[in-house]
Structures are given as C-alpha cells and as structure tokens.
C-alpha cells in the first residue's frame, strides 16, 4: 500500500506546474521505499534533459563520495530516495550561476518533501548543500554542521541527519581544510549508520541475485 502511495505521489509530483518561474520538467529520483532520504538543492540545466537528479558534473563528484563508502551510482539510484528542495530548474542568475529559488518557490515545493517524509519515515536524512541543510536546521557556517550527526524533525517525523557540502565544481569548501576533513568525517558517519548498512546490504543481495 505504501509503495503504491509513493508511486502515486511521484506521478502527481511529475505533473506539477505550480511555480511559473521554474523551468520544467520536474526532476525526481526513483519511487523507491528506502530508509534513506537524500535531499539536494535543485536540478541544474542538464538534469531535466537527462531525467534524473545529480546527472551532471556535481553528480560525478557526489557519486565518487558514495562509492568511497561502498555504494556505486546505479545501485544508489535504485535503493535510495532522491529528493530536492525544488524539483525544477530555477534558471540562470544574470550575474552568473544558477538562480537561487525564492522563499515562495521553496515553500510551494516543500509540501512534496513533507509528503515524502510522511510516506518513507526515513531513518537517515542526507541533505546536500547549504540550501538543503537549511530546510531542516539552522545553518550559520558549514563547519558547524558537516561532520556531525544531528536529530531533526520535519513533517512530524524525527530522523538522524548527516549533512554533506554541495559537490559543485564551483565550490572549493570540500577540497580544502577544514572542509576536506569534515567531509571525510561525514562520510564515515554515513557509512556506519544502520540505515546505510541495511540499504547497502539489500543492494548487494539484489546484485548477487541478478535483480
């Protein structure tokens, strides 16, 4: 029943056109029942064409991080629910880079995230990037958040949260200290988390059985 509800949710999500300044199509991960919920910021201009989140340069870095703790990209996509603060491309900022979604767009898209949390009841939340982290906790500086395990509540559900910096090539935070060491600590916490170990074991069994 919950799997069917999640699939119905994703079907409705993919048809959303609520934000007139956002550029579709909607980008979403697979409707997989998972104890892990990953939340990115918003898709870039390539993800809509490719039809999946983190499908371009930042994704290559992100999936290298996950591969370093046992999860290859395709297995991750099939076994972890991938969400985002906003699900459509915000467009380009005239001053350079992608436009940051405004508060109303974040709030409008936030009800999809709330529904996913209610359906999945995840044991582990992985917000990626400062905008994603800020949806769950106050963020002053990344060095105060990355590398630790937090307990947060949203949509009436409390879960462990291990945040990651955004893997953008434009950011140097995760490539120099203290960000480099804090990223390593965060990945270590993720690797040790029971939800990660459980999901990785399931993915390995599926691969061995040829599923």
The geometry reads as globular
Q: Strand share of the residues?
A: 5-15%
Q: What is the number of beta strands? A: 5
In CATH, the architecture is 3-Layer(aba) Sandwich
Number of domains: 1
Overall pLDDT score: 96
Order of helices and strands: HEHHHEHEHEEHH
Adjacency order of strands in the biggest sheet: 2-1-3-5-4
Radius of gyration, Cα only, in angstroms? 16 Å
What is the name of the CATH superfamily? Uracil-DNA glycosylase-like domain
Low-confidence stretches: none
How far apart the termini lie comes to: 22 Å
Question: Any overview of this molecule?
Answer:
This protein has a five-stranded mixed β-sheet. The protein is α/β, with parallel strands linked by helices and 211 residues long. The mean pLDDT is 96. Strand 4 and strand 5 (157-161) form a beta hairpin. The chain has helices at residues 2-14, 47-50, 57-67, 73-79, 103-120, 130-133, 179-192, 194-208, and strands at 36-40, 81-84, 124-127, 150-154, 157-161. It has one domain (2-208): 3-Layer(aba) Sandwich (Uracil-DNA Glycosylase, subunit E). The protein is globular and about 45 Å long. It contains eight helices and five strands, in the order H-E-H-H-H-E-H-E-H-E-E-H-H.
Chart the SSEs and their pairings:
Elements: H1 2-14, E1 36-40, H2 47-50, H3 57-67, H4 73-79, E2 81-84, H5 103-120, E3 124-127, H6 130-133, E4 150-154, E5 157-161, H7 179-192, H8 194-208
Parallel strand pairs: 1-2, 1-3, 3-5
Antiparallel strand pairs: 4-5
């Amino acid at each position: 029943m919950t799997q069917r509800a999640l699939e119905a949710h994703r079907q409705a999500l993919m048809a959303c056109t609520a934000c007139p300044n956002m550029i579709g199509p909607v980008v979403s991960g697979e409707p997989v029942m998972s104890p892990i919920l990953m939340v990115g910021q918003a898709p870039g201009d390539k993800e809509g064409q490719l039809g999946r989140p983190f499908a371009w340069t930042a994704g290559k870095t992100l999936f290298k991080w996950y591969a370093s703790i046992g999860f290859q990209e395709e297995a991750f996509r099939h076994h972890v629910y991938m969400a985002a603060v906003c699900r459509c491309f915000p467009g380009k900022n005239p001053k350079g880079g992608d436009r940051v979604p405004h508060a109303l767009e974040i709030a409008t898209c936030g009800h999809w995230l709330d529904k996913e949390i209610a359906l999945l009841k995840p044991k582990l939340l992985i917000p990626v990037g400062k905008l994603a982290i800020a949806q769950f906790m106050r963020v002053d500086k990344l060095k105060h958040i990355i590398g630790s395990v937090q307990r947060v509540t949203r949509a009436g559900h409390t879960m462990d949260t291990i945040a990651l910096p955004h893997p953008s090539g434009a950011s140097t935070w995760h490539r120099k200290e203290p960000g480099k060491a804090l990223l390593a600590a965060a990945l270590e916490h993720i690797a040790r988390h029971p939800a990660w170990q459980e999901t990785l074991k399931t993915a390995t069994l599926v691969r061995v059985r040829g599923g």
